[in-house]
Task: structure prediction
Amino acid sequence: MKILTCLIILTVFVPLSAIDILILPSSRIETKYNSNILNLSPYHLDEYKAGGRPEKYTISSADDIITSVRVELGLRHTYLGGRTQNNKFILNYHKYWNNPIKDSGYFGYEFQQFFGRKIFVTLNYFYFPEIYVNNFTSELETETIYREFTYSRDIYRVRFRWRFHDMVHLDYKFDISHLYYNKYFTEYDANNIESDIGFIVFPNDNIRMTIRYAYRISAAKGGAEAYPDLNVQKDPSYEMNNYYYSISFPFHILKRDTHFFSRIEYEERFFQSEYETNSYHFGREDRKFSFYNLLRIPLTDSVQLRTNYNFEQRRTDSPFSFVERDKKYSAHEIGLGLDMDL
Result:
């Protein structure tokens, strides 16, 4: 929170010495359909639809319609000497029509400083107050009682962009994040460090391609630290590789300059538990693939229609067949919305 306080102080006091101050508000509203809001495996989807373990599945439906609202308030300053600085506050909220237990949102702040035309540095802070995952049993209880598995999260990010060539830009991000789970699942509390490097390539004036690689270390508290008196052998720590590719370009639909964006991501997650009794993390490897397409069509100078489709799939390798059965899933999401510059 000290970093966030410093950023807000910069927002309040630095503009006093600036010229050409611009206020740049914008918003987005979108409604989308998600086929699998809890990322349930086919086995668990069949169990839910058959009415099995109703104390575990407290959702009203496995799929849902979600309305998302995003509001941004930007402030741009230009200083004597031509330096530019951007500040931005972000609010994002997701409302689930049938499953309010999944309602979520986050707050974000961005401070961006330009150093000439070729280099800028960005500082970000994001806070997610509560995220619901599913219902699970807790190590604190000997009876089979299902508790809400929820956590909050904050992210601190530094980003560096260098346009060392007109056709190629270097983009580097470094994240530190913290996950705080509710009192029934504190063994999952974790500190994450992630390093992400990418290159943005412009083959011509219209096409933009991005290639990225990210590596994350997630160090979880684990059972020994969370419950020193219970002899809980559980460690959800993991290491992750993430590979990312995207392309975007304009084209015309009904004489409109439509923008197309597509991305592909592939993630490998290797769990580090040394306890064979910790079956859901011992020797486990996850491989997740996602595919996202977006079209933005201008309706007016300040309003754009957006439509998107996302597919996500996870496959798990484990020494235990029931872990592979429980942890694989796939989900589809399709949305329609508006982007508005206010």
Q: What stands out?
A: The mean pLDDT is 93. Residues 2-13 form the longest helix (12 residues). The helical segments are 2-13, 42-49, 222-226, 321-327. The chain is about 10% helix and 60% strand.
